[in-house]
Amino acid sequence: IEGNLTPTIINVTKVAWFIVNVLQVCNAIEEVFHCEFIKQGEWSKIDKIIASRITGGNSEYGRVKSDFYPTPSEATQVLIDFLKDKQLIDNTMTVWEPACGEGHMVNVFTENNIKCIGTDVQTGTDFLQTNIVPCQWIITNPPFSVSEQFIEQCLKFNKPFALLLKTQYWNAKKRLPLFRKHQPLYILPLTWRPDF
Questions:
Q1: Order of strands across the sheet with 137-140?
Q2: What b/e sequence results for 80-99 when a residue is b if at least 16 CB atoms lie within 10 Å of its CB, and e otherwise?
Q3: What is the DSSP pairing of strand 137-140 with strand 161-163?
Q4: Which of 69, 101, 133, 158 is most buried per CB count within 10 Å?
Q5: Coil, strand or helix: which one is 138?
Q6: What are phi and psi of 50, to 5 degrees?
Q7: How many Å separate Cα 112 from the centre of its chain?
């Protein structure tokens, strides 16, 4: 969710503790997997697969054409509940879902009595090339391959927006300038991994 981020004081002791424990866990994982697979002569292959899975990727299997991964309804519902709780959205507003695919997110908004206009590049409306649809919010699960362009387009349209992105999305060095320029107001981590 885009907006201004209020500066927060971070307890340095807790940060240091977290970093130390992450390194300890990584070393333990490396020792276990190294011992298990080095004997079989497949360490480099297994290392790549494990790293990809630990970070939530699926590069070993490839990506689905057009980055089409339908959004699980529970992920959309949690977002709606949060926005309603914060009084950021209500039933008088219209949401634009510009990468609606088969309408998975649109259906959840409709079930919550929130008007939602769904468009998609596959049905002739390219979010990155079109004019804005009349709405109060832009909410979508953008194709990962063009997610940065989606963020920039949302900013250009100057509407509040929420995008479903990977948990580690902002961990990429190449996205640091975008993050510094347009820090999210909220980052809402799910306590489970959606089944895409």
A1: 115-118, 94-97, 137-140, 161-163
A2: beebeeeebbeeebebbbbb
A3: parallel
A4: 101
A5: strand
A6: -65, -45
A7: 22
Q: Which residue has 């519902």 as its token pair?
A: 77
Asked if 179 and 170 count as a contact pair (C-beta separation under 8 A), the reply is: yes
CA–CA distances in Å: residue 110 to residues 87, 132, 138, 173, 186: 18, 20, 15, 37, 24
CB 114 within 8 A of CB 193: no
Q: What is the pLDDT of residues 132-184, one digit of tens each?
A: 999 999 999 999 889 999 999 999 999 999 998 888 888 889 999 999 988 88
Please name the amino acid found at residue 158: N
Measure the CA–CA gap between 56 and 154, rounded to whole angstroms. 25
Which pLDDT tens digit goes with each residue over 35-74?
343 444 444 444 444 444 444 444 444 445 555 567 888 9
CB–CB of 183/5 below 8 Å?
A: yes
Whether residue 16 contacts residue 22, with contact meaning beta carbons closer than 8 Å, is answered with: no
CA distances from 192 to 4, 53, 130, 142 (A): 27, 15, 34, 20
